[in-house]
Write a structure and sequence with these properties.
The complex is a heterodimer of chains A (406) and B (912). Chain A has 406 residues and is mainly α. Chain A has 16 helices and three strands. Chain A has two domains: 168 residues, Preprotein translocase SecY subunit (Orthogonal Bundle); 228 residues, Orthogonal Bundle (Preprotein translocase SecY subunit). In chain A, 71% of the residues lie in helices and 4% in strands. In chain A, helix 4 crosses helix 6, helix 9 runs antiparallel to helix 15 and helix 11 packs across helix 13. Chain B has 912 residues and is of the alpha/beta class. In chain B, the strands form five sheets. Chain B has a seven-stranded parallel sheet, with helices on both faces. In chain B, strands 15, 16, 17, 18, 19, 20 and 21 form a seven-stranded parallel sheet that branches. The chains are: A mainly alpha (406), B alpha/beta (912). At the A-B interface, strand 1, helix 10, strand 2, helix 14 and helix 16 of A face strand 8, helix 15, helix 27, helix 28 and helix 31 of B. Chain A: InterPro entries: SecY, SecY/SEC61-alpha, SecY_CS, SecY_dom_sf. Chain A: It comes from Geodia barretti.
Chain lengths: 406, 912
């Protein structure tokens, strides 16, 4: 399955000038970032250039919409059938997003003179439409592929596809690093930092605060003995927002810089302002990274709280007859949990912010500029890797359990 | 022979129906000494099979036609056989099977033989379509045959063929009544063929069960089979088991068992020590709490409800509001039940549970709906079969809460000793097949979860039942009034009616109404279950009205004009029954009855046959269809109609708030509603419930699979231990490993290791000396006895820990959904953690048994009352275990020449 994906990512869409494309990617942060999600497919402008990104956007949009629109909320509570329906909506939503993003990308490319014929009139119409259709189809194909993996294989297919894309880009990055500088020491140092960061990410990814929960039933069932059987707790992750704040933050930070670059060639006031912003939001400037850090922290809080409210944890607990020992169910519990989540998210947010700016720090220390050791990709990798491992383990356990009883 | 074969093929292709299977006119068969051959079949022209089920006539059914023809060809040979030839043929087929002849080659002869035996014994010739059903059953698939087509008969040849190997065939029915009836009825055929037939009923003792399972073919209900399996795996002696394996199983009404009942697993439980006083205390508080006010508009609770608790009827749950918890705390404190602290503190919070259960008992569980009171006990009524589930209890203290509510003695809470879901029980069988009238709608589920295909067999005679459209009323009173009107009208016209109700309570309510109007009727519900056979036998009589719960929903065969055979049996029994010449006397009585019956039958037929009247829609379309299927059997005329009101539970809970919508539109009470939109809404409500239940089943199965793997492992180990004659070696090995583990853990502290060893095993070195001691112990009492001792100890340990484990898993399951809050898949976490605690349990058992064996001290008995070899039957409780420290072992007087049959006043070890 993943092999199919890698293969497809090398099929270019019609009418692309590859050489110019490469040049472009070396100079553009936003595209570099998007490229990450498509696993290099974007820089080759293949038919899966958009990757599963439109799908992810669609999911996030749906997730944010769910608490706002009552009918969606009802659906999400209807269990399996509702989930299937929401999933179908996400699929439908993916299509227009894919079209829009595809078009946006073509425009972007035209600006950079990679493409010449973009537009909806005359000669340009046919190739443009063809490109957009093939990109949308490519995305939908990937989504389908991902779901097949989820269904038939192990792990979450969509994440695995992103995972595969990132991992596939690694060897290239490293050799590129070697070629750029013959500084073995620097590279070695970089690798060490990379490993340390991965370890750190694993740690934070798994870290959670356990809120012990008591069910009236369990004590009744098992007497004192099972009171603290250890299984009954709510794990509140330090980093429950995952990589989404990173995506948000980078997208926002990159945008003004990119826009500004387009206008930078203008003369006059507009050009000046544009140039100013372009400099300001340049990845090499410290201000850029400070901004990234701040945004990541803000978004982490924002996202965590939105998602947390949406889960209405205390209400669910109450409905199932559980409560946190010593704390009244209902509002007091909600307040207590909120307090805890704010506290632990503080740590999580700072951590995420740190992870976000690590590449910059690393390049400051090592002087190895060329390697874009993206924190986001690391985060994704770790998350997906851990998840897949757990699934594998569970599968193996169920398949052939070798006990130790003799 | 060949040309006939071809001829039979052709109409099949033309009509798409299984015309080829149309039997030869029955009168072309020589009637060999058959007393009941004059059944209704003889009078009916053989018709072309229904072309309605065109799409159902899959290639699978078509492919069977040559096989069926082969069986038909063999028929004439079988007709000529004498009675004594049948067992001889059975033996012959058996030898052929044993000599390695493939079953497929034997099938035609076996089927032909079984068919002839059935014709002689039951007077019913197995139709070609039934043969097809039988062949499909043999493939291990589900056969869908329309209700009343003789599914039970179709299973006879298959059961016979599969029983030839002698490994035992289990036939599962939905209730004891049917198990007994089928075992008797179909058993006649099998016994005629020379096979043994047994039946397992709930009231049977172990020995009777064992005999029944030893038969070639065993009838029983799913509950009994499942419970026997669980009980077998709690025995301490391999010889005490009643079942002898799970080779082949035919499940009658398979959808009922694998789908409807799959939501509730089988649980064996034992009493646990508990304080039941609190249930009674708390029960008195219930009235002081009040439910939250509902918004009359939406019939739902408002956002900010005022009141003490909320009721969730769909999920059968009750939850407190903040206000309610304060009130409860006040009440409890007022009664002096809790002191100090708040309700949610460590020592008090269990009262929340008692209160919740008390509220559920009062508000969600009703007498005569969910349970009945019988001899001052609460007996659960099965929601699907409408029958009483004797001896079953609700879990989690709900049963006690109900007992408190009903003011009857509160029995102690139960503790799960063993459990299994039906899904996993039936997966034990090497081969599984089943039949039902309504599987098609659930075909996907069968193939996904059980890997069973559903094959639809065409009907023998076209169905002439008229299924009328639903009649819908706004409220229940109007509906009931309309039902009474129709019933009275039917009675006047002489048409028998079967009225389906959803609960005992509803059936009695309707009975009271009819009584008030002076309309004669019978009521069949779990309370009247002793009279079930009588009521059903007369349900088809002219003008009869039978109000029934789901009890009459499945497998019930209502004969138009009443059942002549039944009345003949009654008269026969009244005449003195058994004795010499009883058979002949019965035959003559039967013939007289039959003659009387024929005009009655014609009258009822003329009146339109049986009318089925449903008073409410059920949770799934299948149950409705089953009910309808009571009418129009074997080509008889019949009709059916459902009455629905928007007050019905189904419509209230799942019906899109139709009620308030209709009143807004300005619907008036009293008039029946008819609108395609309404019908759609009803179908949608039913579908929603079906989906919901499917989800529940899938969920149950997903989680139960974890338990199932572990259960299989534990049961396998138990089997090994029961069969092992060198348990000492097993324990020694375990101990060595355990010591190694300990050594590894305490590597840096030699003294630590030594003391750990001393305290754990009572010896210093893992090898040499200790093994020596053990051998000595074994010699004192004799190796077999020592082995026996270890076995019992081992099994007892496994059972005890396994039961703890079941409870642990249960609470894990309850809590694991909380993991979704850190974006984890609860099922995955359940698997991982479930196996983790399983591993811990296993190593716990391992160490505990080693400890026990090493620290036990043996004293030779006087040898006079030695149990000797017979002690194998001894249950372990009979063994005296005395606590003793290891140091005393050395001081034990050596009684080297202990008699071989030394008793086992073995001394157990003190728990560390």
């Amino acid at each position: 399955m993943l092999a199919i994906y890698r293969f497809v990512s090398h099929i270019p869409i019609p009418g692309i000038n590859t050489a110019q494309l490469n040049e472009l990617f070396e100079n553009n942060q936003l595209l570099g970032f998007l490229d990450l999600f498509s696993g290099g497919a974007l820089s080759r402008m293949s038919i899966v250039a958009l990757g599963v990104f439109p799908y992810i956007t669609a999911s996030i949009v749906m997730q944010l919409l769910t608490p706002v629109i009552p009918s969606l909320q009802q659906l999400s509570r209807e269990g399996e059938a509702g989930r299937v329906k929401i999933n179908r909506m996400v699929h439908w939503l993916t299509v227009p997003i894919a079209v829009a993003q595809g078009f946006g990308q073509l425009i972007l490319l035209q600006q950079s003179n990679v493409l010449t014929n973009v537009g909806f009139s005359g000669d340009a119409l046919l190739p443009t439409v063809a490109a957009i259709i093939s990109m949308t189809a490519g995305t939908m194909f990937l989504v389908w592929l991902g779901e097949m993996i989820t269904e038939r294989g192990i792990g979450n297919g969509i994440s695995l596809i992103i995972f595969a894309g990132i991992v596939a880009g690694f060897p290239g990055l490293i050799t590129q690093g070697f070629l750029d500088r013959q500084d073995v020491l620097g590279i070695g140092f970089f690798v060490i930092i990379g490993v340390l960061i991965i370890a750190l990410i694993v740690l934070f990814n798994e870290a959670h605060r356990r809120i012990p929960v008591q069910y009236g039933r369990s004590i009744f069932r098992g007497g004192r003995m099972y009171r603290q059987s250890g299984g009954t707790y709510i794990p509140l992750s330090i980093n429950s927002a995952g990589m989404i704040p990173l995506i948000f933050a980078f997208s926002i930070v990159i945008l003004p810089g990119t826009v500004a670059t387009y206008f930078a060639t203008n003369t006059g006031a507009i050009g000046d302002v544009a140039r100013f912003f372009a400099d300001l939001f340049n990845p090499t400037s410290p201000i850029y990274w400070v901004l990234v850090f701040i945004l990541v922290v803000i978004f982490t809080f924002f996202y965590t709280l939105v998602v947390f409210q949406q889960q209405s944890l205390s209400e669910n607990l109450q409905r199932n007859g559980g409560f946190v020992l010593g704390i009244r169910p209902g509002r007091p519990t909600q307040e207590y949990l909120n307090r805890v989540i704010v506290r632990i998210t503080t740590g999580g947010a700072l951590f995420l912010g740190f992870v976000a700016i690590v590449p910059y720090l690393a390049s400051l220390v090592t002087d190895v500029q060329a390697i874009q050791l993206s924190s986001t990709s690391l985060l994704i990798m770790v998350g997906v890797g851990l998840d897949t491992l757990r699934q594998l383990e569970a599968q193996l356990l169920m398949r052939n359990y070798e006990g130790i009883l003799r | 022979m060949k040309p006939r074969c071809v001829r039979r093929h052709e109409p099949l292709k033309e009509s798409g129906g299984a015309a080829a299977c149309a039997a030869r006119p029955p009168d072309s068969l020589t009637v060999v000494s058959n007393r009941r051959y004059t059944r209704i079949y003889a009078g009916f022209p053989v018709r072309v099979l229904g072309s309605k089920s065109n799409r159902d006539l899959t290639w699978r059914v078509k492919a069977l036609v040559p096989l069926v023809n082969r069986i038909n060809e063999l028929e004439s040979r079988m007709v000529a056989l004498s009675e004594a030839d049948f067992p001889a043929w059975t033996d012959k087929l058996r030898t052929r099977l044993e000599s390695g002849e493939p079953r497929a080659r034997i099938l035609p002869e076996a089927f032909a033989l079984a068919r002839e035996a059935a014709r002689r014994q039951l007077g019913e010739r197995i139709f070609d379509v039934q043969l097809m059903g039988g062949i499909i059953l043999d493939h291990g698939a589900i056969v869908e045959m329309k209700t009343g087509e003789g599914k039970t008969l179709a299973s006879v040849p298959t059961a016979y063929l599969n029983a030839l190997s002698g490994d035992g065939v289990h036939i599962v029915t939905v209730n004891d009544y049917l198990a007994e009836r089928d075992a008797e009825w179909m058993g006649r055929v099998h016994r005629y063929l020379g096979l043994s037939v047994g039946v397992v009923l709930s009231r049977m003792e172990m020995r009777e069960r064992m005999e029944a399972y030893a038969c070639d073919i065993t009838y029983g209900t799913n509950n009994e089979l499942g419970f026997d399996y669980l009980r077998d795996n709690m025995r301490w002696d391999a010889d005490a088991r009643v079942q002898r394996g799970h080779r082949y199983c035919i499940v009658d009404e398979i959808d009922s068992i694998l789908i409807d009942e799959a939501r509730t697993p089988l649980i064996i439980s034992g009493a646990a020590e508990d304080d039941t006083e609190r249930f009674a205390q708390v029960d008195r508080l219930v009235d002081a709490l009040r439910e939250c006010a509902k918004d009359p508009e939406t019939d739902d609770y408002p956002e900010e409800p005022s009141g003490d608790y909320k009721i969730d009827e769909k999920g059968k749950r009750v939850s407190f509001t903040d206000e309610g918890l304060n009130a409860a705390e006040r009440l409890l404190r007022g009664k002096g039940l809790i002191r100090g602290g708040s309700l949610v503190d460590d020592e008090n919070f269990e009262y929340i549970h008692y209160l919740t259960q008390a509220l559920r008992a009062h508000r969600l569980f009703q007498s005569d709906v969910d349970y009945v009171l019988e001899d001052a006990t609460v007996q659960i009524v099965d929601e699907f079969t409408g029958r009483i589930l004797h001896g079953r209890r609700y879990s989690d203290g709900l049963h006690q809460a109900i007992e408190a509510k009903e003011r009857i003695p509160i029995l102690k809470r139960n503790r799960t000793l063993a459990s299994i879901s039906f899904q996993n029980y039936f997966k034990l069988y090497d081969k599984l097949s089943g039949m039902t009238g309504t599987a098609d709608t659930e075909a996907t589920e069968f193939s996904n979860i059980y890997g069973l295909d559903v094959v639809v067999i065409p009907t023998n005679r076209p169905l002439v039942r008229a299924d009328h459209d639903d009649v819908i009323f706004l409220n229940e009173q109007d509906k009931l009034a309309a039902i009474c009107d129709e019933l009275a009208a039917c009675q006047k016209a002489g048409q028998p009616v079967l009225v389906g109700t959803v609960s005992i309570d509803k059936s009695e309510q309707l009975a009271r109404l009819l009584h008030g109007r002076g309309v004669a009727h019978e009521v069949l519900n779990a309370k009247a279950h002793a009279r079930e056979a009588v009521i059903i036998a007369q349900a088809g009589a002219e003008g009869a009205i039978t109000i029934a719960t789901n009890m009459a929903g499945r497998g019930t065969d209502i004969k138009l004009g009443g059942n002549p055979e039944y009345s003949a049996r009654r008269r026969h029994a009244a005449d003195g029954g058994n004795g010499h010449g009883a058979e002949e006397r019965f035959t003559s009585i039967y013939e007289r009855e039959l003659k009387d019956w024929q005009p009655r039958y014609d009258t009822v037929r003329g009146a339109g046959g049986l009318h089925v009247l449903g008073t409410e829609r059920h949770e799934s379309r299948r149950i409705d269809n089953q009910f309808r299927g009571r009418s129009g059997r074997q080509g008889d005329p019949g009709s059916s109609r459902f009455y629905i009101s928007l007050d019905d539970d189904l419509m209230r809970l799942f019906g899109d708030n139709l009620r308030s919508m209709m009143s807004k539109v300005g619907m008036k009470d009293g008039e029946p509603l008819a609108h395609p939109w309404l019908n759609k809404s009803i179908a949608r409500a039913q579908k929603r419930v079906e989906e919901r239940n499917f989800e529940l089943r899938k969920h149950l199965l997903d989680f139960d699979n974890v338990l199932n793997e572990q259960r299989k492992y534990i049961y396998g180990k138990r089997d090994e231990i029961m069969a092992d004659t060198d348990l000492l070696g097993r324990v020694l090995e375990t101990a060595t490993e355990a010591v190694e583990d300990l050594t590894g853990a305490a590597e840096f502290s030699v003294t630590g290791t030594l003391s750990a060893l001393r305290s754990r095993f009572g010896f210093l070195m893992p090898d040499g000396e200790s093994g020596h001691h053990l051998t000595e112990k074994a010699e004192v009492v004799g190796t077999p006895n020592f082995n026996l001792f270890i076995r019992y100890e081992y099994l007892r340990l496994i059972d005890a820990r396994w039961q703890d484990h079941l409870e642990n898993l249960d609470s894990l399951r309850e809590a694991v959904y909380l993991r979704t809050y850190s974006q984890k898949n609860p099922l995955l976490e359940y698997k991982l953690e479930g196996f983790q605690i399983f591993d811990e349990m296993l190593s716990g058992i391992r160490i505990a048994i080693a400890e026990k064996v090493f620290r036990v001290t043996i004293r030779a008995g006087d040898g006079t009352s030695g149990p000797g070899p017979t002690s194998r039957r001894l249950q372990p409780q009979g063994m005296a275990t005395v606590h003793r420290e290891m140091g005393q072992f050395a001081a034990m007087p050596q009684q080297g020449d202990a008699p071989a049959a030394a008793t086992m006043p073995a001394r157990g070890a003190q728990p560390p």
